[in-house]
Design brief:
single chain; about 55 residues; mainly beta; about 0% helix
Amino acid sequence: MYVGEAPGLYTRTVTVGNVTSSTVNSLTVGRMYYFVVTAYNSAGESTPSNMVSKTIQ
């Protein structure tokens, strides 16, 4: 999973393993964050998912 504070500018990479949900820590309240997810295996990394955004409350 990639996380950033601007669309397409991802400054954090979170490796979560084989899961269907995850928690991202240390985000700032009041800021909007953007997220994309990729899958990877021995063949490489997939294209990113559609981007989603969330303002932290």
